[in-house]
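Study this one:
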Amino acid sequence: MKPDLQRGKYCYCIDTGLYIKGEGYPVSVVIEDISGHYLTGDADWRERPGARRPWIWGPTLKDAEAACEEQNRQLGVSPERAFEIVTSSMRAQNLEERRGRRAGR
């Protein structure tokens, strides 16, 4: 199921743990109250011919954060709202994990 992307209900984010040396940080989309994030390309883009390369912002963390903030602003999403969206996604993921543990998974 592909989530519906409604204005103000999603934001862009970067994962500082996914740094690509000399290039920057791959970009993901995070959707309010939906667990996880959606990389803007294929995770295996380096290994698989024809895979979609994700957007990469940088090359520095400062540059990537500025690009992320600007792109979110163009969506009408403030830094505060982006924080709310990301934390709602994390909360949804935590709830899924708890349900899985209770179900014996």
